[in-house]
Amino acid sequence: MKEQHKKTTPKVIGEFALQALLYEAALYPKPGLVDPTSCGAHVDMNYFTFIDSSAALDPYLSEYVHLGTTHDGTPLQLFEKVRTLGQQAELAMLSQTNGVNTHKGANFSFALLLSATGKIIHDQQLKIPFSKEDTSTVFNYVKQMTQGLLSKDFSGLAKKQQLSYGEKLYLEHGIVGIRGEAELGYPTLKNKTLPFLRQHQTSDLRLLFLLLLLHLMSTTEDSNVINRGGIIAWQKVKKQATELLEMFSLNCSVKDLEEAMILFDQQLISENLSPGGSADLLALSFFFGRLEGLF
Q: Can you tell me which family this protein belongs to (predicted)?
């Protein structure tokens, strides 16, 4: 059921984003990922690392929104402002986690989406909860903010001596990662996860998000998995997630799904695979579901 209209401020929107980070971290069991009961395929972080990381990012989340609400210029100019603040947030995160990268991808996406949300709220005088059309307007604005991002960030890679794993994947396989998702206006959120949440908003929240995670793992171009295991490992993970979705639905026993997810987790741990890209999109899905008052 939609919640009543409430005052829309950067602080309120930032709190939704913080909730999204914390809810994603708390969801369990998540195959290959950190949750309260498992470190997944990670030896350098645990559930408490994610709590610390989320706390470090917290003040920046509302500041991203504030940048949008006060911006008077082009979408590309807002992107430059946000990227600068996002780099500061990343440093704060790494300082809090002793250099462990917990939320780099999530921070990138939340910086874009929160600033765009702030801009649209200001320009159109929107209130919470958002409509589906309001959310689409945010995605379209991000598309304008990131126009040409891939060609700009990945130009001259062949001449670089040291490449990030994202740059290597782009050169070797054409994998565009989260930059590509952003430049297209987050089609995974717009066309897949949010329609799923809108359709099933009355369902058990934990069951809903465990199934949504499997949906993401079965379809997402997850550069984290590809970097750790290669294209073949990524295709195997997608196939197994798809098979689990064929076995389980929103009418299934949570206990049965939990047991299957724990086995999947153990397998991905043994293969050192972590679908971090899917986890980031899961958090973003929760944020927009909260913004639309779906739960």
A: Belongs to the CitG/MdcB family.
| Residue at token pair 């939704």 | 16
* 3-state secondary structure (DSSP) of residue 195: helix
DSSP secondary structure string for all residues of 92-154: HHHHHTTT--SSHHHHHHHHHHHHHHHHHHHHHT--BSPPHHHHHHHHHHHHHHTTTHHHHHT
Answer yes or no: is 36 within a domain.
Answer: yes
In a domain, 184, yes or no: yes
> Could you tell me if residue 175 is left (phi over 0), alpha (psi between -120 and 50 degrees) or otherwise beta?
beta
Coil, strand, or helix at residue 155? coil
**pLDDT tens digits along 15-58:** 999 999 999 999 999 999 999 999 999 999 999 999 999 999 99
Full-prediction pTM beyond 0.85? yes
Peptide bond between residue 129 and the one before it cis (omega within 30 degrees of 0): yes
Expressed as residue numbers, the domain containing 95 is 10-148+171-201+282-291
Q: Is residue 33 part of a domain?
A: yes
Q: What CA–CA distance (Å, rounded) separates 226 from 116?
A: 29
DSSP alpha helices (H): ranges in the chain? 10-26, 47-69, 75-96, 104-124, 132-145, 149-153, 165-173, 177-183, 187-188, 194-199, 205-219, 223-247, 254-270, 276-291
The band of 95, judged by pLDDT with boundaries at 50, 70 and 90, is: very high
Place of tokens 């250099």: 99
- Spatial distance between the Cα atoms of 237 and 275, rounded to a whole number of angstroms: 9
- pLDDT tens digits for 208-244? 999 999 999 999 999 999 999 999 999 999 999 999 9
Q: How many domains does the chain have?
A: 1
pLDDT grade, residue 7 (50/70/90)? low
Determine how many CB atoms are found less than 10 A away from the CB of residue 230. 13
